[in-house]
């Protein structure tokens, strides 16, 4: 019984160990030309402990670069270079990270990604003060309030944490299951 309690306490102390998310960059399209990475990233929540998974063919690579090199699409001084797929990049610290494809003119054609990592999985504030656009398929007339959907949209990202409504719900659900197990055994 003491071992079970110690195990439960260990799991509750380190929630990132079971709540981390692997984000497949670009979703089903992967790391490739023709993908709107700003749109993809805006649908994700990146937290410390998560990781990025870049999947690409031999015509691409991944370079992590500074913000200035990201803006100019320069791969002259990469922070990290990843020449072969699949590439997993751990997100171990908060802050903004920048990735480009250094091949040919891929970066200038939009093959670049900015990721802002938060400490707790909460969404960072939008940059540039842009307000979110209305959902597609809901035309609005100027001067009328936006329509409210009858049910909330499904959580982005897939995965167990998204299905249960986020990391906090996963922790609560896991805690309730463990409490039931301890109650049955004790």
TrEMBL record:
Superkingdom of origin organism: Eukaryota
Entry's Gene Ontology molecular function annotations: electron transfer activity; metal ion binding
Signal peptide range: 1-19
Gene3D superfamilies per UniProt: Cupredoxins - blue copper proteins (2.60.40.420)
Keywords: Glycoprotein, Metal-binding, Signal
Pfam family name, one: Cu_bind_like
Composition bias, Pro residues: 123-156
Spans annotated as Disordered: 116-162
Keyword Cell inner membrane tagged: no
GO cellular component: a single term: plasma membrane
Statement: the UniProt record of this protein carries the keyword Metal-binding: yes
Residue ranges of every copy of the Phytocyanin domain listed in the record: 21-119
Stored PANTHER family: BLUE COPPER PROTEIN, OS07G0570600 PROTEIN
Name of this chain's protein: Mavicyanin-like
Gene: LOC105179894
